Amino acid sequence: MENNNGKIRKMMIILSKGTLENVYAAFVLANGARMEGIEAEMFFTFFGLEAIHKKKLEHLHVATVGNPAMHMPTMLGGLPGMESLASIMMKKEMEKIDMPDVHEFLDILSASGVKLWACKLAMDMFHYKKEDLYEGVDAIITVGDFYKQSEGEGVHMLMV
């Protein structure tokens, strides 16, 4: 194996949360890698599967409870409508900077060569089928398969 002098060759991004802020963070990281000429693969597991579930991907919300970055008391974040309000406000801010919606962002990632993997265990646990997923998902794979994809020098793994 050749020495890559510490250069990042591939980013392996694991998304386990389905909140709007986590999904966009993972998408921006994968897209940024591709823009820098770095390979990128994403593994969607547990609630991260919502980002690639056809019926759920356009209905992601900002987490208002248990999120210290919201700078509001937990009780206030749990009031009816607060999560929807925060989500609407964040989506408006994202529109102002021309951030694509989730489906369009998935199209961009897929077209740029980002591999999109769904976790078999989580798919089984939530009773999801391949046809429930965004059409650009490359495959449903096991954790072991994902680790095999991660082999080699210059590969970095990141959990969002």
SSE map:
Layout: E1 10-15, H1 20-35, E2 39-44, H2 74-77, H3 82-96, H4 102-111, E3 115-119, H5 120-125, E4 139-141, H6 143-149, E5 155-159
Distance between the ends: 29 Å
Nearest-integer average pLDDT: 88
The spatial strand order of the largest sheet comes to 4-3-2-1-5
Largest sheet: 5 strands, parallel
Helix content: 25-40%
CATH topology of the domain at 10-58 and 101-159: Hypothetical Protein Ychn, Chain: A
- The secondary structure category is alpha/beta
Radius of gyration: 17 Å
Q: Count of DSSP helices?
A: 6
Corresponding CATH superfamily of the domain at 10-58 and 101-159: DsrEFH-like
Number of strands: 5
N-to-C SSE string, H for helix and E for strand: EHEHHHEHEHE
Please report the first level of CATH classification, the CATH class of the domain at 10-58 and 101-159.
Alpha Beta
What assembly state would you assign to the polypeptide chains in this entry? single chain
What is the percentage of strand-forming residues? 15-25%
